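Researcher: Let's do a round of design. I'm pasting the structure tokens now; please hold your answer until I've finished.
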């Protein structure tokens, strides 16, 4: 059975609220949206949002490329792919994977791992016990976790701030960019393999994990 198509008013974003169902959102060449399994869309003119809610059912939604998306869930994993705009995800224990975004990404989880492949704007990622992997970020980066590892790829155009307690930190910088690196770890090794400069700043701290800065 196919999904149900829904209209997307100009300037509206997609908002999804679930408890335990998985969420899959894909951006593609189209002007409307499609959701499977089918359900009624709710429109909020005040917040300029098309909204869907679910308790335990997984949702697969297709929207136009570049659409802004926000997701709130408790335990259902979240996958956003296909070239979206600005994305926001808030979850308790879900794993979150974001493909490519043309705008900012703001991902917050308590215990789930976070992966962002390619962020075209700023990126903020926080998780208390999950690992964080940001493949490449065009803008500023803020990544905070307690016990997970952190891997960041940056264009070197804006500041990078990373904090962890026991996880390893690795930062890879685009070729030709020279950072002012401020690295601090109480018991782990700190190493920057790039000639220092003033193109942008990296602030990274860990209590027991190693910190490394390398060229991509």
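Researcher: That's everything. Go ahead.
Model: Designed sequence:
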């Amino acid at each position: 059975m196919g999904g149900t198509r829904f209209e997307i008013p100009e300037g509206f974003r997609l908002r999804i609220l679930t408890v335990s169902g998985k969420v899959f959102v894909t951006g593609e060449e189209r002007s409307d949206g499609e959701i499977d399994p089918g359900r009624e869309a709710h429109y909020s003119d005040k917040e300029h949002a098309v909204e869907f809610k679910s308790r335990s059912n997984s949702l697969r939604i297709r929207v136009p490329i570049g659409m802004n998306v926000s997701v709130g869930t408790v335990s259902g994993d979240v996958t956003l792919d296909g070239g979206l705009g600005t994305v926001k995800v808030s979850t308790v224990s879900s794993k979150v994977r974001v493909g490519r975004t043309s705008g900012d990404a703001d991902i917050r989880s308590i215990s789930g791992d976070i992966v962002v492949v390619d962020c075209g704007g700023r990126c903020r990622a926080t998780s208390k016990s999950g690992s964080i992997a940001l493949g490449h970020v065009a803008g500023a980066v803020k990544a905070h976790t307690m016990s997970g590892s952190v891997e960041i790829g940056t264009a070197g155009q804006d500041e990078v701030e990373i904090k962890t307690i026991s996880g390893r930190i690795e930062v890879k910088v685009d070729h030709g960019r020279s950072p002012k690196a401020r690295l601090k770890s109480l018991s782990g090794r700190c190493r920057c393999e790039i000639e220092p400069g003033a193109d942008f700043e990296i602030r990274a701290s860990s209590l027991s994990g190693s910190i490394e800065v390398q060229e991509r």
